Automatic annotation (TrEMBL):
InterPro entries: PP2C, PPM-type-like_dom_sf, PPM-type_phosphatase-like_dom
Organism lineage: Eukaryota, Fungi, Dikarya, Ascomycota, Pezizomycotina
PANTHER family, per database record: GM14286P, PROTEIN PHOSPHATASE 2C
Species this chain originates from: Teratosphaeria destructans
Pfam families in the record: PP2C (PF00481)
GO molecular function terms attached to this record: [pyruvate dehydrogenase (acetyl-transferring)]-phosphatase activity
Protein name: Protein phosphatase 2C homolog-like protein
Length: 609
């Protein structure tokens, strides 16, 4: 064994592809590899870097020997004796720049292949080293020993393009809405990064009789439609619907009003949010103190100590008004087509609420004067980024309450800057937009994971591109005919979007992942249309688009390493239009995963209030 190690070390000093290949076949030893190229865009030389710093350096031992075949992902923490040697001459590394592939010894792979040094056929590997992603190539006749040990090394198979597409589509759902109330379709998809995923979503149609809310044109009912991205799901919709129910009934019983005022509807939505958060954050404390049980405390206080952002939209089919209530940093954007240019405009319906948002900083400074650390480094008290959230009770409880819970049960010490809580609120900011179903408006709602990768204009332009592609296809039985009247079949390489100023008023922060990955902005040629589900289409292009290697690499990374490169992704796209009024909400099978097909029979798409 000692002789084998010495031989491998000599190989590093005098790189020779043929000799190294023979020794690796005979000895099956481990080779320390230092990679010179990394995953980057096609014009940038910057590596795809992690958004989190590593506390220790990392090395990548590759076990080359007789064993299981396949593509691989490697990760290992460096120990004190690890060598930062040069790469094995038999392993070629490359990035996404499209440059000539070369071995780590500097010899082009094509030259070695022509000289008979290594086989022409190669397989791909994905490597994580020092917080950066790299691709590598190994000869096709070499196998990779898949080993896992206590040092932290893990070897996983890298996804093929077909497997990457299958993973993207695992949780996609699409529904065709035939209610005749202004909504014709909505698509949903989720891609986890955390395990388990921290995002969730809800879609609900509530049939409202005329005894609760006034209607027009001789109708006996109207629809309230809810879409949301939040952990709280049905619970939040129930709280908001109850408050809306009381508000609309009160207005109906008053002969002078009939309909509630805009301010009353906004107040009802806010009240539903605040009531739910009060139950989570404050009523839980009273229950724990009354029970005097650590088991009860562990169960009841968990939601209060954790945190959740929420984005909820409420569409009233009678008024054609769409209200978006935002608590946190999820975002909703309206896409509206300009009939004169045929392009789309992007209008933010929410503003990211963080410790770095100017309007939120001004509000907090007004509520907590003479507290210079109320926001620090874009975070509340220097710790929490969202300035509005459910839970996150350590920013809401008084110091006395936190001390009492910590001494009797568990918990951490409050921030040294805590003086006049609460600093975080669950009260949402509500915006109202009148939707025009005849013009084909649509809304994209998504958690912050999507907006870290794409701008508002890119998201709306991608949906517009997808719509034009669908309109050019012959209408099918699944109901794409509603697209035909909106567009010509003319298609261009550029996204059909009218670019705005991109100021803070648009609710838009710069996509940090584009900077992290070294992607150039404004290059529409990197996008592709391959999916029947438009939400999946957005996620595909956020993770790489035409760059299949980047897409496969980002989807191959397992939790928790994937969190350094991408967040959980939950995306909803709602299409407004004048569809058939058959009263049905049906699963769109060609744009939904098999799991959704099986679930559809048991899940009722609507509910009566």
């Amino acid at each position: 064994m000692r002789r084998a190690i010495i031989q491998n070390l000599r190989t590093f000093r005098r790189p020779n592809p043929r000799k190294a290949l023979k020794q690796l076949r005979i000895n099956g030893g481990h080779v320390n590899v230092a990679f010179e190229r990394s995953i980057a865009n096609r014009t940038s030389s910057q590596p795809l870097q992690s958004s989190m710093r590593f506390s220790r350096r990392i090395s990548v031992p590759l076990g080359l020997g007789v064993g299981a075949a396949g593509l691989a992902y490697f990760y290992q923490q460096r120990n004190g004796s690890a060598s930062n040697a040069h790469a094995s001459p038999t392993l070629a590394t490359r990035g996404y720049s499209g440059q000539a592939r070369a071995t780590a010894s500097g010899v082009p792979l094509s030259s070695l292949a022509a000289a008979g040094e290594v086989p022409e056929a190669v397989r791909k590997a994905l490597i994580v080293d020092q917080g950066q992603l790299y691709t590598a190539e190994i000869p096709a006749d070499q196998t990779i020993s898949k080993e896992t040990d206590f040092s932290g090394r893990k070897v996983l198979e890298m996804l093929t393009p077909e497997q990457a597409s299958a993973k993207l589509r695992t949780n996609e759902e699409s529904y065709l809405v035939g209610r005749g109330e202004g909504v014709v379709r909505y698509d949903v998809v989720q891609i986890p990064s955390n395990d388990p995923i921290e995002d969730d979503h809800v879609e609900k149609i509530v049939e409202v009789p005329s005894t609760i809310a006034a209607v027009e044109n001789g109708k006996t009912r109207s629809d309230w439609m809810f879409w949301g991205v939040a952990k709280l799901r049905q619970t939040l919709v129930s709280y908001v619907a109850r408050e809306l129910n009381s508000t609309y009934k009160a207005a109906l019983q008053d002969p002078q009003t009939t309909y509630p005022t805009a301010e009353a509807v906004d107040a009802a939505i806010k009240k539903g949010f605040v009531k739910l958060d009060h139950e989570i954050t404050h009523e839980s404390v009273q229950k724990v103190l009354k029970a005097q049980s650590k088991v009860v405390a562990a169960e009841i206080l968990a939601p209060a100590l954790s945190g959740s952002c929420a984005l909820l939209s409420f569409y009233d089919s009678r008024s054609k008004e769409l209200r978006v209530a935002c608590t946190g940093d999820s975002r909703a954007v309206l896409g509206r087509r300009n009939p004169g240019t045929g392009k789309w405009t992007a209008t933010a319906l929410s503003i990211d609420q963080t410790g770095g948002t100017a309007s939120e900083v001004a509000r907090l400074q007004k509520e907590h004067p003479n507290e210079p650390h109320v926001t620090a480094n874009g975070r509340i008290l220097g710790g929490l980024e969202p300035s509005r959230a459910f839970g996150d009770a350590i920013y809401k409880w008084s110091k006395e309450t936190q001390d009492k819970l910590r001494n009797s049960y568990f918990g951490r010490s409050p921030s040294k800057y805590l003086k006049t809580p609460p600093y975080v609120t669950a009260e949402p900011v509500v915006t109202t937009t009148r939707v025009d179903p005849t013009k084909g408006d649509f809304v994209v709602m998504a958690t912050d994971g999507l907006w870290e990768m794409l701008t508002n204009e890119e998201v709306v332009g991608l949906v517009g591109q997808w719509l034009e592609k669908q309109a050019s296809v012959k209408p099918s039985s699944t109901g794409t005919g509603w697209l035909q009247s909106w567009f010509s079949t003319q298609q261009t390489a550029e996204l059909p979007i009218e670019h705005g100023s991109g100021s803070e008023k648009s609710g838009q922060r710069a996509p940090i992942r584009q900077q992290q990955w070294g992607l150039p902005s404004g290059q529409d040629s990197r996008f592709v249309v391959e999916d029947k589900n438009v939400a999946t289409h957005l996620v595909r292009n956020a993770l790489g688009g035409k760059d299949q290697e980047m897409l496969s690499a980002l989807l191959t990374l397992p939790s928790p390493f994937s969190r350094r490169y991408r967040d959980d992704l939950t995306v909803q796209v709602i299409f407004f239009g004048e569809g058939e009024g058959n009263g049905k909400v049906e699963l769109n099978r060609e744009a939904s995963a098999t799991a959704a097909h099986e679930h559809a029979a048991a899940a009722a798409p609507k509910a009566k209030l």
